[in-house]
Amino acid sequence: MSVALQLGIIVGYLLLALVIGLVAYRLTDRTAEDFYLASRTVGTIVLLFTTFATLLSAFTFFAGPNVAYQQGPEWVLVMGLMDGIIFAILWYVIGYKQWLLGRKYGYVTLGEMLGERFGSRRLRGLVAGISLLWLFPYVMLQQVGAGTALQALTDGTVPYAVGAGLITAFMILYVVVAGFRGIAWTDTLQGAFMLVATWIALLWVLAAVGGPGAATAALEAEAAHHLALGSDFYTVQWMLSTAITIGFGVAMFPQVNQRFFAAGSKTVLKRSFALWPILCVLLFVPSFLLGAWARGLDVAIPAGENVLPVVLAEYTPVWFAALVIAGAMAAMMSSSDSMLLSGSSYFTRDLYRPYVDRDVSERREDLLARVGVVVFATAAFLGSLLQPATLFELGDAAFSGFAQLALPVLVALYWRKTTRTGITAGIVASQAFYLSALFTAVPGTYAGWSAGLVGMGLGLVVTVGVSVVTTPAADERRAIYFDGLGAD
Amino acid sequence: MARLALWGWIAVAIGLSALTIPWFLWGDGTVVAGVPLWLWWHVGWMGVASLVFWLFARHAWGLGIETGEDASGGDTSGGTSSSASADAGGERR
Protein backbone atom coordinates (compact mmCIF):
# COMPACT_ATOMS: atom_id res chain seq x y z
CA MET A 1 0.00 0.00 0.00
CA SER A 2 2.48 2.57 1.16
CA VAL A 3 5.02 1.68 -1.54
CA ALA A 4 2.47 2.00 -4.32
CA LEU A 5 1.24 5.22 -2.78
CA GLN A 6 4.73 6.68 -2.47
CA LEU A 7 5.63 5.71 -6.01
CA GLY A 8 2.33 7.12 -7.20
CA ILE A 9 3.00 10.39 -5.43
CA ILE A 10 6.55 10.59 -6.82
CA VAL A 11 5.39 9.87 -10.36
CA GLY A 12 2.54 12.34 -9.93
CA TYR A 13 4.99 14.98 -8.81
CA LEU A 14 7.31 14.32 -11.74
CA LEU A 15 4.43 14.67 -14.19
CA LEU A 16 3.36 17.93 -12.57
CA ALA A 17 6.94 19.19 -12.83
CA LEU A 18 7.03 18.23 -16.49
CA VAL A 19 3.83 20.16 -17.20
CA ILE A 20 5.31 23.22 -15.49
CA GLY A 21 8.47 22.71 -17.55
CA LEU A 22 6.49 22.63 -20.78
CA VAL A 23 4.68 25.84 -19.87
CA ALA A 24 8.06 27.42 -19.12
CA TYR A 25 9.44 26.13 -22.43
CA ARG A 26 6.71 27.93 -24.35
CA LEU A 27 7.72 31.21 -22.72
CA THR A 28 11.40 30.76 -23.45
CA ASP A 29 13.48 32.72 -25.94
CA ARG A 30 15.99 30.47 -27.61
CA THR A 31 19.02 32.19 -26.12
CA ALA A 32 21.54 30.97 -23.59
CA GLU A 33 20.78 33.89 -21.26
CA ASP A 34 17.15 32.91 -21.13
CA PHE A 35 17.95 29.23 -20.68
CA TYR A 36 20.34 29.94 -17.81
CA LEU A 37 18.79 32.96 -16.11
CA ALA A 38 15.22 33.38 -17.40
CA SER A 39 16.55 36.62 -18.95
CA ARG A 40 17.05 38.14 -15.47
CA THR A 41 13.33 38.55 -14.75
CA VAL A 42 12.79 36.50 -11.59
CA GLY A 43 10.44 37.94 -8.93
CA THR A 44 10.70 37.97 -5.12
CA ILE A 45 8.78 34.84 -4.18
CA VAL A 46 10.28 32.73 -6.95
CA LEU A 47 13.83 33.93 -6.27
CA LEU A 48 13.39 33.36 -2.55
CA PHE A 49 12.02 29.86 -2.88
CA THR A 50 14.20 28.72 -5.73
CA THR A 51 17.29 29.69 -3.76
CA PHE A 52 15.77 28.13 -0.68
CA ALA A 53 14.82 24.84 -2.36
CA THR A 54 18.10 24.58 -4.20
CA LEU A 55 20.12 25.30 -1.13
CA LEU A 56 18.48 23.28 1.58
CA SER A 57 16.29 20.50 0.28
CA ALA A 58 17.76 17.04 0.69
CA PHE A 59 20.08 17.89 3.51
CA THR A 60 17.39 19.61 5.55
CA PHE A 61 15.08 16.62 5.48
CA PHE A 62 17.48 13.71 5.77
CA ALA A 63 20.98 14.46 6.99
CA GLY A 64 20.06 17.44 9.21
CA PRO A 65 17.49 15.65 11.42
CA ASN A 66 19.93 12.71 11.65
CA VAL A 67 22.58 15.02 13.12
CA ALA A 68 20.05 16.48 15.56
CA TYR A 69 18.99 12.97 16.56
CA GLN A 70 22.52 11.79 17.25
CA GLN A 71 24.09 14.94 18.64
CA GLY A 72 21.30 17.23 19.84
CA PRO A 73 19.31 20.20 18.53
CA GLU A 74 22.27 22.64 18.39
CA TRP A 75 22.31 21.88 14.68
CA VAL A 76 19.51 24.47 14.36
CA LEU A 77 21.97 27.12 15.54
CA VAL A 78 24.73 26.08 13.15
CA MET A 79 22.37 26.07 10.16
CA GLY A 80 20.74 29.30 11.30
CA LEU A 81 24.09 31.06 11.45
CA MET A 82 25.43 29.69 8.16
CA ASP A 83 22.33 30.07 6.02
CA GLY A 84 20.14 32.57 7.82
CA ILE A 85 22.80 35.14 8.69
CA ILE A 86 26.15 34.59 6.93
CA PHE A 87 24.65 33.66 3.59
CA ALA A 88 22.14 36.53 3.86
CA ILE A 89 24.95 39.03 4.41
CA LEU A 90 26.78 37.57 1.40
CA TRP A 91 23.52 37.87 -0.48
CA TYR A 92 24.08 41.61 -0.27
CA VAL A 93 27.87 41.84 -0.25
CA ILE A 94 28.51 39.42 -3.12
CA GLY A 95 25.03 38.96 -4.57
CA TYR A 96 23.92 42.54 -5.06
CA LYS A 97 27.25 43.57 -6.54
CA GLN A 98 27.23 40.58 -8.88
CA TRP A 99 23.69 41.40 -9.90
CA LEU A 100 24.63 44.98 -10.79
CA LEU A 101 27.66 43.82 -12.75
CA GLY A 102 25.68 41.09 -14.47
CA ARG A 103 23.03 43.56 -15.55
CA LYS A 104 25.57 46.06 -16.81
CA TYR A 105 27.92 43.70 -18.62
CA GLY A 106 25.73 40.67 -19.31
CA TYR A 107 27.63 38.16 -17.18
CA VAL A 108 26.10 34.73 -16.72
CA THR A 109 28.82 33.00 -14.71
CA LEU A 110 31.28 33.86 -11.96
CA GLY A 111 34.25 32.91 -14.15
CA GLU A 112 33.10 35.25 -16.88
CA MET A 113 32.82 38.12 -14.40
CA LEU A 114 36.33 37.55 -13.02
CA GLY A 115 37.91 36.74 -16.38
CA GLU A 116 36.80 40.02 -17.89
CA ARG A 117 37.90 42.16 -14.96
CA PHE A 118 41.35 40.60 -14.89
CA GLY A 119 41.68 40.28 -18.69
CA SER A 120 42.42 36.63 -18.23
CA ARG A 121 40.98 33.70 -20.12
CA ARG A 122 43.06 31.44 -17.93
CA LEU A 123 41.48 32.75 -14.71
CA ARG A 124 38.04 32.29 -16.23
CA GLY A 125 38.83 28.69 -17.12
CA LEU A 126 40.42 28.11 -13.73
CA VAL A 127 37.34 29.24 -11.79
CA ALA A 128 35.06 27.15 -14.01
CA GLY A 129 37.34 24.13 -13.78
CA ILE A 130 37.56 24.29 -9.99
CA SER A 131 33.80 24.73 -9.72
CA LEU A 132 33.17 21.71 -11.92
CA LEU A 133 35.68 19.69 -9.93
CA TRP A 134 33.53 20.14 -6.80
CA LEU A 135 30.15 20.23 -8.50
CA PHE A 136 30.45 17.03 -10.48
CA PRO A 137 30.89 14.65 -7.52
CA TYR A 138 28.21 16.54 -5.60
CA VAL A 139 25.69 15.89 -8.39
CA MET A 140 26.83 12.29 -8.41
CA LEU A 141 26.08 12.02 -4.68
CA GLN A 142 22.52 13.20 -5.32
CA GLN A 143 22.08 10.48 -7.93
CA VAL A 144 23.48 7.90 -5.52
CA GLY A 145 21.02 9.17 -2.90
CA ALA A 146 18.05 9.04 -5.24
CA GLY A 147 18.95 5.57 -6.50
CA THR A 148 19.39 4.25 -2.96
CA ALA A 149 16.13 5.84 -1.79
CA LEU A 150 14.13 4.37 -4.66
CA GLN A 151 15.64 0.97 -4.05
CA ALA A 152 14.82 1.12 -0.33
CA LEU A 153 11.33 2.45 -0.99
CA THR A 154 10.44 -0.38 -3.35
CA ASP A 155 12.24 -3.07 -1.37
CA GLY A 156 14.58 -3.69 -4.26
CA THR A 157 11.93 -3.98 -6.99
CA VAL A 158 13.57 -0.97 -8.63
CA PRO A 159 17.31 -1.83 -8.52
CA TYR A 160 19.78 0.92 -7.69
CA ALA A 161 21.13 1.36 -11.22
CA VAL A 162 17.64 1.53 -12.71
CA GLY A 163 16.45 4.03 -10.08
CA ALA A 164 19.45 6.31 -10.51
CA GLY A 165 19.16 5.97 -14.28
CA LEU A 166 15.47 6.84 -14.34
CA ILE A 167 16.01 9.88 -12.16
CA THR A 168 18.92 10.98 -14.38
CA ALA A 169 16.88 10.54 -17.55
CA PHE A 170 14.02 12.52 -16.10
CA MET A 171 16.30 15.31 -14.93
CA ILE A 172 17.91 15.57 -18.37
CA LEU A 173 14.54 15.74 -20.05
CA TYR A 174 13.29 18.27 -17.57
CA VAL A 175 16.29 20.59 -17.55
CA VAL A 176 16.72 20.51 -21.32
CA VAL A 177 13.08 21.43 -21.82
CA ALA A 178 12.39 23.78 -18.94
CA GLY A 179 15.59 25.74 -18.40
CA PHE A 180 15.99 28.06 -15.44
CA ARG A 181 12.45 29.41 -15.57
CA GLY A 182 10.83 25.98 -15.23
CA ILE A 183 13.27 24.92 -12.51
CA ALA A 184 12.58 28.08 -10.53
CA TRP A 185 8.84 27.54 -10.76
CA THR A 186 8.93 23.94 -9.56
CA ASP A 187 11.35 24.96 -6.81
CA THR A 188 8.82 27.51 -5.61
CA LEU A 189 6.05 24.96 -5.53
CA GLN A 190 8.30 22.53 -3.73
CA GLY A 191 9.78 24.96 -1.22
CA ALA A 192 6.35 26.20 -0.16
CA PHE A 193 5.01 22.66 0.02
CA MET A 194 7.87 21.37 2.15
CA LEU A 195 7.65 24.33 4.52
CA VAL A 196 3.99 23.69 5.20
CA ALA A 197 4.41 19.90 5.33
CA THR A 198 7.23 20.10 7.88
CA TRP A 199 5.11 22.19 10.23
CA ILE A 200 2.14 19.85 9.86
CA ALA A 201 4.46 16.91 10.58
CA LEU A 202 5.78 18.62 13.71
CA LEU A 203 2.30 19.43 15.02
CA TRP A 204 1.10 15.93 14.24
CA VAL A 205 3.94 14.28 16.13
CA LEU A 206 3.61 16.71 19.04
CA ALA A 207 -0.12 16.06 19.28
CA ALA A 208 0.58 12.34 19.45
CA VAL A 209 3.26 12.56 22.15
CA GLY A 210 1.57 15.20 24.32
CA GLY A 211 3.18 18.50 23.37
CA PRO A 212 6.69 19.98 23.39
CA GLY A 213 6.97 19.71 27.19
CA ALA A 214 6.43 15.95 27.13
CA ALA A 215 8.70 15.50 24.11
CA THR A 216 11.50 17.44 25.78
CA ALA A 217 11.03 15.57 29.06
CA ALA A 218 11.36 12.30 27.15
CA LEU A 219 14.51 13.58 25.48
CA GLU A 220 15.89 14.64 28.84
CA ALA A 221 15.29 11.15 30.24
CA GLU A 222 17.05 9.59 27.25
CA ALA A 223 19.89 12.04 26.66
CA ALA A 224 19.88 14.93 29.14
CA HIS A 225 23.12 16.41 27.76
CA HIS A 226 21.36 17.18 24.47
CA LEU A 227 19.42 20.01 26.08
CA ALA A 228 22.43 21.93 27.36
CA LEU A 229 24.06 24.16 24.75
CA GLY A 230 27.35 22.69 23.50
CA SER A 231 28.95 19.24 23.80
CA ASP A 232 32.04 17.30 22.85
CA PHE A 233 30.64 17.24 19.33
CA TYR A 234 29.32 20.80 19.22
CA THR A 235 32.47 22.67 20.21
CA VAL A 236 32.81 26.40 19.61
CA GLN A 237 35.46 25.80 16.95
CA TRP A 238 33.44 23.16 15.19
CA MET A 239 30.23 25.19 15.14
CA LEU A 240 31.98 28.30 13.84
CA SER A 241 34.15 26.41 11.32
CA THR A 242 31.12 24.61 9.94
CA ALA A 243 28.87 27.66 9.79
CA ILE A 244 31.49 29.92 8.22
CA THR A 245 32.87 27.53 5.59
CA ILE A 246 29.48 26.26 4.49
CA GLY A 247 27.94 29.75 4.55
CA PHE A 248 30.67 31.09 2.25
CA GLY A 249 30.74 27.86 0.24
CA VAL A 250 27.05 28.16 -0.53
CA ALA A 251 27.57 31.59 -2.07
CA MET A 252 30.13 30.11 -4.49
CA PHE A 253 28.13 27.01 -5.40
CA PRO A 254 27.39 27.56 -9.11
CA GLN A 255 23.64 27.07 -8.90
CA VAL A 256 23.35 29.48 -5.97
CA ASN A 257 25.87 32.01 -7.22
CA GLN A 258 24.14 32.11 -10.59
CA ARG A 259 20.87 33.02 -8.92
CA PHE A 260 22.49 36.31 -7.93
CA PHE A 261 22.37 37.22 -11.63
CA ALA A 262 18.76 36.19 -12.12
CA ALA A 263 16.80 38.71 -10.01
CA GLY A 264 14.35 40.89 -11.91
CA SER A 265 15.01 44.10 -9.99
CA LYS A 266 16.68 45.67 -7.00
CA THR A 267 13.42 45.47 -5.06
CA VAL A 268 13.36 41.70 -5.57
CA LEU A 269 16.83 41.42 -4.04
CA LYS A 270 15.91 43.67 -1.12
CA ARG A 271 12.76 41.80 -0.20
CA SER A 272 14.36 38.37 -0.50
CA PHE A 273 17.25 39.58 1.66
CA ALA A 274 14.97 40.77 4.48
CA LEU A 275 12.76 37.66 4.43
CA TRP A 276 15.65 35.20 4.32
CA PRO A 277 16.42 34.71 8.07
CA ILE A 278 12.73 34.22 8.89
CA LEU A 279 12.31 31.67 6.12
CA CYS A 280 15.37 29.74 7.32
CA VAL A 281 14.31 29.60 10.95
CA LEU A 282 10.77 28.62 9.94
CA LEU A 283 12.10 25.52 8.24
CA PHE A 284 15.06 24.62 10.43
CA VAL A 285 13.27 24.65 13.77
CA PRO A 286 10.53 22.10 12.97
CA SER A 287 12.76 19.92 10.82
CA PHE A 288 15.64 19.59 13.29
CA LEU A 289 13.50 19.58 16.43
CA LEU A 290 11.68 16.56 15.01
CA GLY A 291 15.04 14.86 14.66
CA ALA A 292 16.17 15.89 18.15
CA TRP A 293 12.92 14.86 19.86
CA ALA A 294 12.87 11.53 18.03
CA ARG A 295 15.75 10.48 20.27
CA GLY A 296 13.47 10.48 23.32
CA LEU A 297 10.50 8.82 21.63
CA ASP A 298 9.82 5.12 21.47
CA VAL A 299 10.95 4.87 17.88
CA ALA A 300 13.63 2.42 16.85
CA ILE A 301 15.78 3.87 14.08
CA PRO A 302 17.38 1.00 12.13
CA ALA A 303 21.08 1.51 11.42
CA GLY A 304 21.69 3.47 8.25
CA GLU A 305 18.11 4.72 8.00
CA ASN A 306 17.09 8.35 8.01
CA VAL A 307 15.31 9.52 11.16
CA LEU A 308 12.55 11.66 9.70
CA PRO A 309 10.85 9.00 7.52
CA VAL A 310 10.82 6.53 10.42
CA VAL A 311 9.25 9.08 12.79
CA LEU A 312 6.64 10.06 10.23
CA ALA A 313 5.80 6.43 9.56
CA GLU A 314 5.28 5.94 13.30
CA TYR A 315 3.14 8.98 14.11
CA THR A 316 1.40 10.18 10.96
CA PRO A 317 -0.94 8.50 8.44
CA VAL A 318 0.63 6.60 5.57
CA TRP A 319 -0.48 9.05 2.92
CA PHE A 320 1.01 12.00 4.77
CA ALA A 321 4.34 10.29 5.40
CA ALA A 322 4.42 9.27 1.74
CA LEU A 323 3.74 12.83 0.66
CA VAL A 324 6.58 14.23 2.75
CA ILE A 325 9.07 11.56 1.67
CA ALA A 326 8.14 12.07 -1.95
CA GLY A 327 8.53 15.80 -1.46
CA ALA A 328 11.94 15.35 0.08
CA MET A 329 13.05 13.12 -2.78
CA ALA A 330 11.74 15.61 -5.25
CA ALA A 331 13.69 18.25 -3.36
CA MET A 332 16.82 16.20 -3.84
CA MET A 333 16.15 16.27 -7.56
CA SER A 334 15.43 19.96 -7.60
CA SER A 335 18.89 20.64 -6.23
CA SER A 336 20.41 18.38 -8.86
CA ASP A 337 18.62 19.88 -11.82
CA SER A 338 19.75 23.37 -10.85
CA MET A 339 23.29 22.07 -10.52
CA LEU A 340 23.13 20.43 -13.92
CA LEU A 341 22.02 23.64 -15.50
CA SER A 342 24.74 25.68 -13.82
CA GLY A 343 27.39 23.07 -14.49
CA SER A 344 26.48 23.14 -18.14
CA SER A 345 26.66 26.93 -18.25
CA TYR A 346 30.11 26.96 -16.64
CA PHE A 347 31.24 24.42 -19.18
CA THR A 348 29.87 26.08 -22.31
CA ARG A 349 30.57 29.70 -21.42
CA ASP A 350 33.86 29.47 -19.62
CA LEU A 351 35.53 26.43 -21.16
CA TYR A 352 34.00 25.64 -24.55
CA ARG A 353 33.45 29.15 -25.82
CA PRO A 354 36.77 30.74 -24.85
CA TYR A 355 38.92 27.72 -25.63
CA VAL A 356 37.21 25.89 -28.51
CA ASP A 357 34.93 28.17 -30.49
CA ARG A 358 34.91 31.88 -29.77
CA ASP A 359 32.38 32.91 -32.36
CA VAL A 360 29.50 30.71 -31.40
CA SER A 361 26.08 32.26 -32.17
CA GLU A 362 23.38 32.84 -29.52
CA ARG A 363 21.18 30.17 -30.98
CA ARG A 364 24.00 27.69 -31.16
CA GLU A 365 25.12 28.44 -27.62
CA ASP A 366 21.60 27.70 -26.43
CA LEU A 367 21.76 24.32 -28.17
CA LEU A 368 25.23 23.70 -26.81
CA ALA A 369 24.01 24.46 -23.29
CA ARG A 370 21.38 21.76 -23.58
CA VAL A 371 23.91 19.29 -24.94
CA GLY A 372 26.13 20.22 -21.99
CA VAL A 373 23.34 19.19 -19.59
CA VAL A 374 23.08 15.77 -21.22
CA VAL A 375 26.84 15.18 -21.12
CA PHE A 376 27.20 16.37 -17.52
CA ALA A 377 24.26 14.31 -16.21
CA THR A 378 25.27 11.17 -18.07
CA ALA A 379 28.84 11.39 -16.84
CA ALA A 380 27.65 11.89 -13.25
CA PHE A 381 25.34 8.90 -13.66
CA LEU A 382 28.24 6.73 -14.82
CA GLY A 383 30.16 7.98 -11.80
CA SER A 384 27.26 6.96 -9.55
CA LEU A 385 27.45 3.42 -10.95
CA LEU A 386 31.20 3.05 -10.45
CA GLN A 387 31.27 5.05 -7.22
CA PRO A 388 35.01 5.75 -7.01
CA ALA A 389 36.03 6.64 -3.45
CA THR A 390 37.79 9.84 -4.54
CA LEU A 391 34.56 11.24 -5.94
CA PHE A 392 32.75 10.51 -2.69
CA GLU A 393 35.35 12.41 -0.72
CA LEU A 394 35.21 15.35 -3.11
CA GLY A 395 31.42 15.42 -3.03
CA ASP A 396 31.28 15.38 0.76
CA ALA A 397 33.81 18.20 0.93
CA ALA A 398 32.21 20.29 -1.83
CA PHE A 399 30.96 23.12 0.40
CA SER A 400 34.39 23.70 1.91
CA GLY A 401 35.93 23.37 -1.55
CA PHE A 402 33.71 26.14 -2.88
CA ALA A 403 34.32 28.21 0.25
CA GLN A 404 37.98 28.47 -0.82
CA LEU A 405 36.87 30.63 -3.76
CA ALA A 406 34.85 33.09 -1.70
CA LEU A 407 37.49 35.33 -0.14
CA PRO A 408 39.64 35.87 -3.26
CA VAL A 409 36.42 36.80 -5.09
CA LEU A 410 35.36 39.16 -2.28
CA VAL A 411 38.75 40.85 -2.30
CA ALA A 412 38.55 41.29 -6.07
CA LEU A 413 35.05 42.75 -5.82
CA TYR A 414 35.97 45.37 -3.22
CA TRP A 415 39.66 46.14 -3.55
CA ARG A 416 40.90 47.85 -6.67
CA LYS A 417 44.49 46.90 -6.14
CA THR A 418 43.82 43.20 -6.54
CA THR A 419 45.99 41.96 -9.40
CA ARG A 420 45.54 39.07 -11.78
CA THR A 421 48.55 37.34 -10.28
CA GLY A 422 47.21 37.97 -6.78
CA ILE A 423 43.77 36.46 -7.24
CA THR A 424 45.11 33.55 -9.30
CA ALA A 425 47.70 32.77 -6.63
CA GLY A 426 45.07 33.06 -3.87
CA ILE A 427 42.70 30.66 -5.61
CA VAL A 428 45.39 28.14 -6.51
CA ALA A 429 47.02 28.23 -3.06
CA SER A 430 43.80 27.74 -1.08
CA GLN A 431 42.55 24.97 -3.39
CA ALA A 432 45.91 23.21 -3.27
CA PHE A 433 45.96 23.46 0.51
CA TYR A 434 42.43 22.20 0.96
CA LEU A 435 42.84 19.33 -1.49
CA SER A 436 46.05 18.32 0.30
CA ALA A 437 44.20 18.33 3.62
CA LEU A 438 41.63 15.99 2.08
CA PHE A 439 43.93 13.59 0.29
CA THR A 440 47.40 13.80 1.82
CA ALA A 441 48.99 13.83 5.25
CA VAL A 442 48.33 17.58 5.68
CA PRO A 443 46.20 17.83 8.88
CA GLY A 444 42.45 18.33 8.65
CA THR A 445 42.07 20.39 11.84
CA TYR A 446 44.13 23.09 13.53
CA ALA A 447 43.37 23.44 17.28
CA GLY A 448 39.80 22.44 16.52
CA TRP A 449 39.41 24.73 13.49
CA SER A 450 38.75 22.96 10.20
CA ALA A 451 41.14 22.90 7.24
CA GLY A 452 38.36 24.50 5.20
CA LEU A 453 38.44 27.59 7.40
CA VAL A 454 42.23 27.70 7.54
CA GLY A 455 42.33 27.40 3.73
CA MET A 456 39.98 30.37 3.42
CA GLY A 457 42.34 32.44 5.55
CA LEU A 458 45.27 31.30 3.43
CA GLY A 459 43.43 32.31 0.23
CA LEU A 460 42.78 35.74 1.69
CA VAL A 461 46.36 36.31 2.80
CA VAL A 462 47.86 35.08 -0.49
CA THR A 463 45.46 37.12 -2.65
CA VAL A 464 46.18 40.32 -0.76
CA GLY A 465 49.91 39.65 -0.25
CA VAL A 466 50.65 38.77 -3.86
CA SER A 467 48.53 41.68 -5.11
CA VAL A 468 50.58 44.07 -3.00
CA VAL A 469 53.89 42.91 -4.44
CA THR A 470 52.83 42.55 -8.09
CA THR A 471 51.72 45.13 -10.61
CA PRO A 472 48.53 44.79 -12.61
CA ALA A 473 48.77 43.46 -16.16
CA ALA A 474 48.16 45.97 -18.94
CA ASP A 475 44.89 44.42 -20.07
CA GLU A 476 43.24 44.31 -16.65
CA ARG A 477 40.10 46.43 -16.41
CA ARG A 478 40.51 47.64 -12.88
CA ALA A 479 37.65 50.11 -12.92
CA ILE A 480 34.74 47.96 -14.06
CA TYR A 481 33.80 46.72 -10.59
CA PHE A 482 33.65 50.27 -9.28
CA ASP A 483 32.77 52.94 -11.80
CA GLY A 484 29.22 53.82 -12.65
CA LEU A 485 27.63 51.04 -10.65
CA GLY A 486 24.08 51.72 -9.64
CA ALA A 487 20.56 50.70 -10.35
CA ASP A 488 17.18 52.29 -10.41
CA MET B 1 29.60 60.50 7.47
CA ALA B 2 29.55 57.85 4.74
CA ARG B 3 32.51 56.11 6.32
CA LEU B 4 30.65 56.15 9.60
CA ALA B 5 27.54 54.61 8.07
CA LEU B 6 29.60 51.94 6.34
CA TRP B 7 31.54 50.97 9.45
CA GLY B 8 28.38 51.18 11.53
CA TRP B 9 26.61 48.68 9.30
CA ILE B 10 29.67 46.43 9.20
CA ALA B 11 29.61 46.44 13.02
CA VAL B 12 25.91 45.59 12.96
CA ALA B 13 26.56 42.67 10.59
CA ILE B 14 29.31 41.31 12.81
CA GLY B 15 27.15 41.75 15.90
CA LEU B 16 24.26 39.93 14.26
CA SER B 17 26.52 37.03 13.30
CA ALA B 18 28.25 36.94 16.68
CA LEU B 19 25.10 36.49 18.75
CA THR B 20 23.11 34.17 16.46
CA ILE B 21 24.42 31.43 18.70
CA PRO B 22 23.91 32.55 22.33
CA TRP B 23 27.43 31.83 23.58
CA PHE B 24 26.53 33.33 26.96
CA LEU B 25 24.16 30.41 27.53
CA TRP B 26 26.94 27.86 26.91
CA GLY B 27 26.30 24.71 28.94
CA ASP B 28 22.88 26.00 30.01
CA GLY B 29 20.00 23.52 29.75
CA THR B 30 17.09 25.64 31.00
CA VAL B 31 13.83 24.63 29.34
CA VAL B 32 11.09 27.20 28.76
CA ALA B 33 7.71 26.08 27.44
CA GLY B 34 9.12 22.75 26.37
CA VAL B 35 12.05 24.12 24.36
CA PRO B 36 15.60 24.99 25.51
CA LEU B 37 16.04 28.66 26.33
CA TRP B 38 18.97 28.98 23.93
CA LEU B 39 16.69 27.93 21.09
CA TRP B 40 14.17 30.64 21.99
CA TRP B 41 17.00 33.16 21.89
CA HIS B 42 17.98 31.94 18.42
CA VAL B 43 14.43 32.12 17.09
CA GLY B 44 14.01 35.64 18.45
CA TRP B 45 17.41 36.65 17.09
CA MET B 46 16.52 35.51 13.58
CA GLY B 47 13.43 37.71 13.82
CA VAL B 48 15.63 40.62 14.87
CA ALA B 49 17.96 39.85 11.94
CA SER B 50 15.09 40.02 9.47
CA LEU B 51 14.02 43.34 10.94
CA VAL B 52 17.57 44.72 10.75
CA PHE B 53 17.95 43.50 7.15
CA TRP B 54 14.66 45.15 6.29
CA LEU B 55 15.82 48.43 7.83
CA PHE B 56 19.09 48.16 5.92
CA ALA B 57 17.30 47.45 2.65
CA ARG B 58 15.06 50.43 3.24
CA HIS B 59 17.58 53.02 4.37
CA ALA B 60 21.08 52.00 3.40
CA TRP B 61 20.84 49.67 0.41
CA GLY B 62 23.66 50.34 -2.03
CA LEU B 63 26.09 51.34 0.71
CA GLY B 64 29.64 50.36 -0.21
CA ILE B 65 28.53 49.11 -3.63
CA GLU B 66 26.74 51.72 -5.71
CA THR B 67 29.06 54.32 -7.14
CA GLY B 68 27.52 55.51 -10.35
CA GLU B 69 26.05 58.90 -11.14
CA ASP B 70 22.81 57.10 -11.90
CA ALA B 71 22.72 55.78 -8.35
CA SER B 72 21.77 59.08 -6.77
CA GLY B 73 18.38 59.55 -8.35
CA GLY B 74 15.31 57.44 -8.66
CA ASP B 75 15.70 55.32 -5.57
CA THR B 76 13.95 55.87 -2.25
CA SER B 77 17.18 56.47 -0.38
CA GLY B 78 18.87 59.23 -2.35
CA GLY B 79 20.86 60.31 0.68
CA THR B 80 22.43 56.93 1.12
CA SER B 81 23.29 56.54 -2.51
CA SER B 82 25.24 59.76 -2.54
CA SER B 83 27.03 58.73 0.63
CA ALA B 84 27.89 55.43 -1.01
CA SER B 85 29.51 57.16 -3.94
CA ALA B 86 31.42 59.44 -1.61
CA ASP B 87 32.66 56.37 0.20
CA ALA B 88 33.89 54.63 -2.91
CA GLY B 89 35.68 57.85 -3.79
CA GLY B 90 37.66 57.48 -0.62
CA GLU B 91 38.89 54.10 -1.72
CA ARG B 92 40.16 55.33 -5.04
CA ARG B 93 43.92 55.00 -5.31
Automatic annotation (TrEMBL), chain A:
Keywords: Cell membrane, Ion transport, Membrane, Sodium, Sodium transport, Symport, Transmembrane, Transmembrane helix, Transport. It holds the Pfam family SSF. It is found in: Cell membrane. The keyword Ion transport applies. One of its GO terms (biological process) is sodium ion transport. One of its GO terms (molecular function) is symporter activity. PROSITE patterns: NA_SOLUT_SYMP_3. Gene3D superfamilies: Sodium/glucose cotransporter. One of its GO terms (cellular component) is plasma membrane. The chain crosses the membrane at residues 6-25, 37-63, 75-94, 123-140, 160-180, 192-215, 235-253, 273-295, 315-333, 367-386, 398-415, 422-442, 448-469. It is a multi-pass membrane protein. Belongs to the sodium:solute symporter (SSF) (TC 2.A.21) family. This is Na+/proline symporter. It comes from Natronococcus occultus SP4.
Automatic annotation (TrEMBL), chain B:
The keyword Ubl conjugation does not apply. InterPro entries: DUF3311. The keyword Amino-acid biosynthesis does not apply. The chain crosses the membrane at residues 7-26, 38-57. Residues 70-93 are annotated as: Disordered. Pfam families: DUF3311 (PF11755). Residues 78-93 have a biased composition (Low complexity). Keywords: Membrane, Transmembrane, Transmembrane helix. This is DUF3311 domain-containing protein. It comes from Natronococcus occultus SP4.
